[in-house]
Amino acid sequence: MSRNVFQAFNDDELPETREPDDVYEPDDGSDSEGEEFNYTYPPDEDLPDDDLDSDEEYVLTEMGPVAFRFTEDYQPSTSANPDIGEPHDQRLRAKDGTLWSITPPANQKTPSKNIFRPAKTRHSNCNGMSDPTSAFNLFISPNIIRDIVKFTNLEGQRMDGGKWMQTDEIEIKALIGCFIHLGAMNQSMFPSELIWDVKCGNPMARSVFTRNRFLKLSNRLRFDDKETRTERRERDAFAPIRDLWERFQSNLRRYYTPGPFITVDEQLYPWRGRCSFLQYLPSKPDKYGLKVFWACDAETMFPLVGKPYLGKVGRTPQVNLGRNTALELCEPFFGSGRNLTCDSFFTDMELCKALSTEKLTMVGTLRRNKVFIPPEFQDPKQTEKGKPRFAFRKGSMLVSYKSGQKKNVIVLSSMHSDAAIVPEKGEKNLPEV
């Protein structure tokens, strides 16, 4: 109900109050939340004498009688679910009191958070890119290479003194290119003896470096000034590579414009060295490594924003880590009308609301223990196989779907607002969300 003017009487103008038992209640079948206070005057009772316009409606609430004035263009809502304003038998109540409607809202204008205006080109500022080398120079920019050369030479002189052979930008580029090539050939974890083997080794690596020079450069490779690292590390555990990391990510977003869909997830980089934020994840193929949260383009898998997980900050446990991480990764795209897709580690109702205020939508799976999920959705037995259940609320929608015999999948979406079904091969009644 759109109320253009809200006006309340002063205390000295209040009429004599009446007990609720004597109040006339119109029999309109409504039973919306909070209606126990919305009593109207009986038709035969005199309204307060005032000079207000005749198009005002007086309502007796717990705060006293108030007047609502409606403009001529006011039209009552015809939606079956304007804002969970249905009888109790049409609602689902969660443990925390959140109300959901089983009836979808009426068709309405597309909200601004669902409007995405694509860029003219995905590769902005890339006029000079014509081959792989020029593309490499865009992302690993010359200032990054110069800093690597500078700090690597400082470390080499500190370790080897006069025996250190100075490196330069060409050699550092070749070293990075060799790393990329070994990774593409799935040989990054091979021992160096095998890579430089004459018969079974990698011919490209042998043609660029001798084995001793490759190991020497790899061992002395540095990305920051080691003299000031201790002070910076007290504030940031990622200090040895923080500056390079931020500049590289800035280049990722500068030279590529993502599409309408962004995905947030985590990635574990296998590693077993000494590190204060080394992670052990038994569910991953490589159980030990460094964890990084990424926001990527869902269509091309292009990385956009990355955040390394550095463990606890002091002894204070991190609260709502998934929600805060997702918001931080999506910050560069606020106001763009894009959609975020994530898993149950990130998804919750507060994230959905926060993204909606920034004109972003969200689709994500949910854990069953969330308190805002109705019990009917949490129990897999109440969802039949191939028959999805829907629940609606202002700005969001819940879906429970079971494709197997035991478990059901619960999805929260602020992008969809109807019970649309998409026919898929092998799946019956598959929800569009």
Oligomeric assembly: single chain
Helix-strand sequence:
EEEEEHHHHHHHHEEEEHEHEHEEEEE
Low-confidence stretches: 1-80
Global outline: elongated
Based on CA atoms alone, the radius of gyration comes out at 31 Å
State the separation between the terminal residues, measured CA to CA: 29 Å
Structural class: alpha+beta
Instruction: Give the number of helices.
Output: 11
Biased composition (Acidic residues): 22-36, 43-52
Region (Disordered): 1-52
Pfam family, one: DDE_Tnp_1_7
Domain PiggyBac transposable element-derived protein: 131-420
Helix/strand layout:
Elements: E1 5-8, E2 56-61, E3 64-69, E4 91-93, E5 99-101, H1 132-139, H2 142-160, H3 169-184, H4 192-195, H5 203-208, H6 211-220, H7 229-235, H8 239-254, E6 261-270, E7 279-280, E8 288-297, E9 303-308, H9 321-330, E10 339-342, H10 349-357, E11 361-365, H11 375-378, E12 389-393, E13 396-401, E14 409-413, E15 421-424, E16 427-431
Parallel strand pairs: 6-10, 10-11
Antiparallel strand pairs: 1-3, 2-3, 4-5, 6-8, 7-8, 8-9, 11-14, 12-13, 13-14, 15-16
Helix pairs in contact: 9-10
